[in-house]
Amino acid sequence: MRPTRTGSFGVIGCLVLLFALISPRLALFAIWLFSDLLSRSFDSWIVPFLGFFLLPWTTLAYAVLWASSNGVSGFEWFIVVLAFLVDLGAFAGGGRRRRAQTA
Fold this sequence. Notes:
The protein is mostly helical. It has one domain. The chain is built from six helices and no strands. The longest helix has 28 residues, at 75-102. The protein is globular and about 50 Å long.
């Protein structure tokens, strides 16, 4: 029996979700490699490129939510903001860890 295509992700959706649990950058790389989701979600290549290095959770959340309804609206913005806060928390945690190691 052939797997059916469900939603925009199709068959690789669960694999990308597992990659996201390991690393959002790994999930972004898999999305870039296996689909055209990033090019549909963003107008240029520079925003996902910068998002890969600076705000990986935010970039991943925006791209996945864009694919779900061909745009981000309503409650979906709450999830994007939550991903942004997770990214900020990672930056703050890294800075705190560096200060503790030098002291």
